[in-house]
Amino acid sequence: CRGFKSVWPDLSGSVGEDGNSPSSINDYCETLFKNNNCDDYIDKVNAVSFWLFVQNFGDDSSLTKNIDSNTNIFHYIMIWLIYTLKLKSDDKVMEFYNKCINPTREYTNSIKDTNGYNIYKDPIDNKLKLMNEGINDISKFYDAFKSLCNMYNGFNPDDSGCTENLNDAKKFAEKYEILLNNNNNNDTDTEDSLSVYIKQHDPTQFTNQK
Q: What is the pLDDT of residues 160-189, one digit of tens each?
């Protein structure tokens, strides 16, 4: 969650309709592209997504193994990725896929570490379209995920009553229950994402607290 906390003000919450973003977004672009620049919104999202993968899983052959053993983090990144793309429009997900995950030779040649990039895009290739089609309202999952991260990031050991932490936990519990109750069709990808949440934190323990 700490990695996402640093990303949120740089991209999701501050990229305007014109695609402008803070100068700090250049740091992500310099990590990914040879020319150190992002040409458009899709490139910016791709650069931040790549950074999140490297921060959480590494940037070499161990990445795939680390993803397999940390599926919860992988799900969080995918939820963030789909949500952030859809901030612009629903078709941005497929635009991202066609440009970044199924890239042309020219695009691949623009990447600094092509081997690391190929390792990065493979798990996204396997999951992006399935999650995009299988989860009806990604914004609700993103909202629940952000509440979960606020709970962990906001933990204050000096607050003996953990007041803020408990409030965030209750918010997450409420959002989780809404998602659970709305999954009437028992969608596989929805169930997978819900199971990731429940592994991280059992929301039912907070539902009866005042």
A: 555 666 676 676 666 666 666 665 555 555
Q: What value, to the nearest 5°, has the Cα angle with vertex 111 and ends 48 and 120?
A: 55
**Chain centroid to CA 154:** 19
Helix, strand and coil percent figures for the chain, each rounded to 5: 70, 0, 30
Phi/psi of residue 100, each to 5°? -105, -35
Residues paired with 33 in a beta bridge: 111
Whole-number CA gyration radius for the chain: 18
Per-residue CA distances from 57 to 79, 101, 132, 133 (Å) = 17, 18, 22, 26
**Which of left, alpha, beta for 103 (phi over 0: left; psi -120 to 50: alpha)?**
beta
Smallest Cα–Cα separation from 78: which of 148, 19, 146, 127? 127
Q: Is the pTM of this model over 0.85?
A: no
